[in-house]
Design brief:
355 residues; 4-stranded mixed sheet; 6 helices; 23% helix
């Protein structure tokens, strides 16, 4: 019987390299599409959570006749050792008041009751307490990753509008959320669909100079400035491209304690556009700056999501008009900071619409 040899041949090295190259190109083309799809899903979830907060704000307004203040609470008997469990020092954030309206009634009741070591409504708002150490999950945007995110962190912020001077403690700010005084719908004379209520900020958690050498402007706050309310453009000058020019002056105290009503913790301003630099007057190392510029920041390409007072959610581009940033802040009338400032002021009389 004759023997017939097999004539099969394998791939040559060149052919294998070509196949590998084609697979690599296909992966390179597919990966951005997958990443975009994931970001679109995260952005949708982030938007939906803001819509839920919008419903909560409206339900709170229906119940109490005004929007929740950004900061309020029980009186401090005197700052010092031994008193930190006796009050929240008047710094309970608006999120505590919203808890029953975001399906967190059990947590709200525990905070209201206190416990054996802590007075009703909690200890100092920046202090740890087992009842509130973990923020409700819906207060975190899935796109907002963080290098050192504590369990008590929050991404969503209340608008203080285009007010800069004294916006930490002011009770008559141009925006919708401030200290103690809750704003009624009738106070928003520019129209609820034109006035922003909430937006996003990325969580940061480091002291002055502790953020490394290359700090993105979206992930820190410049310190050591003076007179921001008279010339906000000096905050722009702290940036070099997408990074801060002097990292030794930068701190990160945004959103790391959801229960604390300080503006650096749970607030934002409508002066500089989304994803621009943040700044405070002075060198406060904690999240207690009293005169601040804190634009929304996010990982969404090109801007941040905003919740408006009518409950609608819109994307605010980082290219939005900001008017004259060399102009000082105003206490009444139209905002000098363009369309963005007009969105923040509840009764500036501007004709701009939030498109």
């Amino acid at each position: 019987m004759p023997f017939h040899s097999s004539n099969r041949r394998g791939f040559t090295l060149v052919e294998l390299l070509v196949v590998i190259a084609i697979i690599g190109v296909l992966i390179a083309l597919l990966l951005p599409a997958v990443q975009q799809a994931r970001e679109a899903a995260r952005r949708m979830q982030c938007s939906n959570q803001l819509k839920q907060l919008g419903l909560a704000l409206h339900n709170y307004h229906d119940t109490y006749g005004a929007f929740v203040p950004r900061k309020q609470g029980t009186n401090d008997p005197g700052y010092g050792s031994g008193n930190e469990r006796l009050s929240n020092s008047g710094r309970a954030s608006g999120f505590i008041g919203l808890l029953p309206f975001i399906e967190q009634t059990a947590m709200y009741d525990k905070i209201a009751a206190g416990d054996g070591s802590t007075a009703p409504w909690g200890p100092y708002a920046w202090a740890g307490w087992g009842v509130w150490n973990n923020a409700p999950e819906m207060l975190l945007c899935p796109s907002a990753t963080s290098k050192s995110k504590p369990a008590s962190a929050v991404n969503y912020m209340f608008s203080s509008g285009d007010s800069i001077q004294g916006n930490r403690d002011g009770s008559n700010l141009r925006g919708v959320f401030q200290r103690v005084h809750g704003v009624n719908m009738r106070d928003i004379t520019d129209g609820t669909s034109n006035t922003i209520a909430m937006s996003e900020r990325l969580i940061t958690n480091f002291g002055i100079g502790g953020g490394g050498t290359n700090i993105p402007v979206t992930e820190g706050t410049a310190t050591g400035l003076s007179g921001l309310s008279g010339n906000p453009s000096q905050c722009v000058a702290t940036a070099s491209g997408r990074f801060y020019a002097n990292p030794g002056d930068i701190k990160g105290r945004t959103g790391w304690r959801w229960t604390d009503g300080q503006i650096e913790k749970v607030g934002f301003t409508t002066v500089l556009p989304p994803n621009a630099a943040s700044c405070i007057d002075g060198t406060n190392p904690n999240g207690d700056g009293s005169n601040t510029i804190l634009p929304p920041t996010s990982n969404h390409p090109g801007g941040a999501i905003g919740l408006f007072c009518d409950g609608s959610v819109k994307f605010v581009a980082e290219t939005i008009d900001t008017g004259d940033l060399t102009a000082g802040q105003v206490t009444n009338g139209p905002s000098p900071y363009g369309v963005w400032g007009a969105m923040g002021s509840k009764s500036g009389g501007e004709a701009y619409a939030a498109n």
